[in-house]
Amino acid sequence: MDAMKAYLRTCPTDCPLQREQVYIVYKFLNTPIDVLVSGMHQMQPNQLTQFYRKLAKQLRPDKNCHPQAKDAFQRVQCAMD
């Protein structure tokens, strides 16, 4: 959480990040992949699709300019497969 706060303070002005974007990147980078996979397997197929689409919109590197957004996006894609 401290790393997230530190990044928000030093965030470049040309790319205003919202707290939610920074939080979600750190959340998915710090969650073990097996926990992500097991959580996704417990969802209904339609819930999983909605969850993935919403998450993908928030983590897409072209929409989220956080330096680690690409890594978090790839991690969620890996868990989805």
Describe what this molecule looks like in 3D.
The chain is built from 5 helices and no strands. It has a single domain (2-80), classed as Helix Hairpins (Orthogonal Bundle), CATH 1.10.287. The chain has helices spanning 2-10, 19-30, 33-41, 45-59, 69-80.
Brief descriptors of the model:
Helix Hairpins; globular
Layout of secondary structure:
Elements: H1 2-10, H2 19-30, H3 33-41, H4 45-59, H5 69-80
Fraction of residues in H or I helices: over 70%
**CATH domain topology:** Helix Hairpins
What characteristic shape results from the CA principal axes?
Answer: globular
What is the overall number of helices? 5
The value of Rg in angstroms is: 13 Å
Unreliable runs: none
- Determine the N-to-C terminus distance: 28 Å
Output the structural class: mainly alpha
Number of strands: 0
**CATH C-level name:** Mainly Alpha
What is the name of the CATH architecture? Answer: Orthogonal Bundle
Order of helices and strands: HHHHH
Strand content: under 5%
What is the typical, i.e. mean, pLDDT? 77
User: How is the biggest beta sheet arranged?
Assistant: none
What count of domains describes the coordinates? 1
